[in-house]
Amino acid sequence: MAMTIDRRTFLTGVTWAAAASMLPWEARGAVSQGTGMADGGIIINALGGLDDPNRGADGLVPELSPRVLAEAHASGLTAVNITLGYVSGADDPFEASVRDIAATDALVRQHERDVLKVLSAADIRRAKAEKKVGLIYGFQNGAMMGNDAKRVDIFADLGVRVFQLTYNPANQLGDGSMAPENRGLTPFGREVVARLNARKVMVDLSHSGEQTCLDAARTSTAPISINHTGCRAVANLPRNKTDAELRLVAERGGFVGIYFMPFLNVSGHAHAEDVVAHIDHAVNVCGEDHVGIGTDGSVTQIDDLNVYQAALAKEIAQRQAAGISAAGERPDTYPFVVDLRGPRQFQKLAQLLAAKGYSSGRIEKILGTNFLRYAQTIWGG
C-alpha cells in the first residue's frame, strides 16, 4: 500500500526521543555528573537511531549533524543498531534497501572521525577504544527478500548485520505481531533463516507474532534475538513478548532488548519505572546474561513538543490506514518514556537499576556487554 508518511516516523521511535531541549555542551555536563557509565562502560542500543527529530528528515538514513553527534557522544553510546531499508510504502523493497545502505555508507565515510560501520564484535570494541559510535546496519522487514533467499548474501556482503523477519503485518517470511492468524514461520521464512545462519547475520524476532518467534528460535541453528520489545506478562499488548518466547530465546543463547516505548504500560503512558519493571521481569525469565536494551529511540531532544503533538495524530492515522500500526498506538501516547529520555537516559537507567539493588556488573551487562557477547557469538571478531 502506498504511503505518504515519513518512513522514519514511529518506526524506530527516533522522532520522539525527548521533549525538552538540551544543548550539546549542557548534555556533556549532565552526563559527566552521572554514574560514570559514559566514560567507562560499553553502552549498546540494540535498536535505535541517530538523527535530529527537529529537522523532520525523510527516510531512514541517519542524520549525522554536529548536534546529533555531540549528543550521541555525550550519552556514552558505544554502538547502535540503526534501521535501514524498506519497512512499508510504495517503494520497491529491494531497491529502497540498497539505496539506504549506499547512502549510509557515504555518511560514514564523511564522518569517519565520529562513527564507524560495525561488521564484527571487534568493531564495537574498536568504537569504544576510539571514542566513536558504532553503526550496526539492520532491517525491520524481510520484504526485500522477494522470493529469493539468496538475496541474504547480497545484504550480508553490503554489511547488514541484523535482519528482523517481519514488521507488524504478515509478510512472505511469517506473521507479524498484528497478524491475527498467528500462523508462524513460512517455508520461505525457514529458508531465509537458514541462509542468515550461514552468513552469520542476526535473526531478530522483534515485531513478530508469537508463533513466528517460537518457530524461528527452534529452526535457527544459531541463537536469535528480540532486539526491542517488552514483556507481555507485565503489559498485555501484542508488541510485547510472552514468557514462552523470552524463555526459549534465552535458553538457546539469544538476546532480548527492552524498549523505551508506550507499550510498556497498557495505559500507553510509559515511565522509567515501567522500563525497570520490564527489565526486571525479563531478567527473572531469561537470566541476567540475556537481557539488554533496545530503546527504539535516539538521544537527540525535541525542542518544541507542541509542534510534535500537532503532527502526532496525523502520523498515527496514516500508520493505521496503511495497516502497519500496533495496538496501543494512539494520538495521546508518546512513543517514548516521558522521564527517561535525552542524552542522560542510559545513566539515569543505570541509577534506577542500582537503586533497585542491581550490582554494577549486572547493570553493565544490561547496558551493553550482554549484546556484545551475543554479537561475538553470531558475528565473531
Automatic annotation (TrEMBL):
Pfam families: Peptidase_M19. InterPro entries: Metal_Hydrolase, Pept_M19, TAT_signal. This is Dipeptidase. It comes from Dyella halodurans.
